[in-house]
Amino acid sequence: MSKHRSRRSFIGHAAAGFSTLALSRLAQAQPAPKPALIEHAVAAPVGIEVNARPIPNFEPRDRARTRFGSLDYRGGLVLTSPHRGFGGLSGFRFLDSKGERFLAISDQGTWFTGRIRYSGRSMTGLDDVEAAPVLNAEGRPITEKRLWYDTESLARDGDLVYVGLERVNQIMRFDFAKGGTRARGEVLPTPPAVRKLPYNKGLEALVFVPKGQPLAGTLIALSEGGFDADGNLIGFLLGGPTPGQFSIRRTDQQLISDAVLLPSGDLLILERKFSWFTGVDIRIRAIPLKSIAPGALVDGPVLFKADLGHEIDNMEGIDAHVTADGETVLTLVSDDNFSMLQRTLLLQFALVE
């Protein structure tokens, strides 16, 4: 049975009760702990082939529908590769303003770079894809050190790239002006509360605030499932004018998987939830950047929701770019957990409200 059909099997059996296949598919779709062995890490930079199959409809049950909340579906791709190290994508950032050149990171300590190919407004494939190991200060792959592999979050400040490692809850900084993905990383000092985040629900999103925005020069770090005393999600303001800790109101049992800052000043937070009864669903919330401050509890409206009735998987990365026509386009990427039952998806939506 194909991946596409196994996914449809889950949806078809959901109302009548979970079948064994559906339970297996659902279990794989949730964010799961990774094995201790770094099976899919790469040892040296290598060019890889990535194949792409288009996703013409985001909701197969209603193929005429393109509007989903405040987003309009532009298209998507199912990505596969014969290279065993491809997958596990947990962070995604564009390297240009056109939404073409990208930098991604897997949760097994691997960089991926390449270029999205378009036909008009629709993505058609990836070109010039390269995989490379994330290096430590000594120029060795970070995966050589125990637990230093779960690279989950990614942020950019020009040539400076920040990476969050979830299991050890550390942040590394790389100067891409010194060799791009060959650059050596340095570990940044962080508050003790960062390192006390949960082992497998720690640093999940990083966003750097550029000049011209409130909190300019701040690195915003968000935990996947670190809670304050009231059960809300913990965030940190690192560096910048007002460093400190704040909270994001948690609703509907959602956990954070990534975030992106729009030029408008909204921080979009990508969230996900897993339940054996309702499956996996995702949503995007908009938090005004101006509301974030040390000690603040912030919240914002939900712009978008989707579940396994739509073409989603374990969505872990989000970024945005603005087209020449002034359209804000969001790009989402999924972590397939290197499972045959999951998919690496690249989805694009235009923000219409």
Molecular structure report:
The chain is mainly beta and 353 residues long. Helices cover 7% and strands 46% of the residues. The chain has helices spanning 3-14, 20-29, 192-195, and strands spanning 46-47, 51-55, 67-68, 71-80, 89-94, 101-106, 110-119, 122-133, 151-157, 160-165, 170-175, 185-187, 203-208, 218-227, 233-239, 244-248, 255-261, 266-275, 279-288, 297-298, 302-307, 315-322, 328-334, 344-351. Strands 2, 3, 4, 22, 23 and 24 form a six-stranded antiparallel sheet that branches. It has a five-stranded antiparallel sheet with strand order 1-8-7-6-5, with no helix packed on it. Helix 1 crosses helix 2. The longest helix is centred in the N-terminal third of the chain and has 12 residues, at 3-14. It is globular. Mean pLDDT is 90; it is low at 1-37.
- Protein structure class: mainly beta
Order of helices and strands: HHEEEEEEEEEEEEHEEEEEEEEEEEE
Q: Radius of gyration from the CA trace?
A: 19 Å
Mean of pLDDT: 90
- Unreliable stretches: 1-37
Percent of residues in helices:
under 10%
How many extended strands? 24
- The coarse silhouette is globular
**How is the quaternary structure best described?**
single chain
Describe the main β-sheet briefly: 6 strands, antiparallel
- The separation of the N and C termini measures 39 Å
- Strand-residue fraction? over 45%
Number of alpha- plus pi-helical segments: 3
